[in-house]
Amino acid sequence: MKMSDLILSVGDENVVFQNLDRDAQTVDKTKHGTKITFYTDAIQAEEMLFGKPAKIGLVLWLPRDRVEAAISKEKAQLSEGK
Hints:
By secondary structure, the chain is an alpha+beta fold. It has one domain (3-80). It is built from three helices and four strands.
């Protein structure tokens, strides 16, 4: 399943975006790759089902230059009133 199809099925209003650039606590190089520790407010303590979070977190890795370009374009369009 493509990620866009999954988001459409779940409903855009039910998807929360979290930027690990802002929320990463530690980023450590390891023998097997990179270990990233982060905090989230997307899951509250009361949102547990049978000892598991009621939400599933998925990490998407996107090209930084394209994300920054998309954000800049959106900001420019908003400032122009489009």
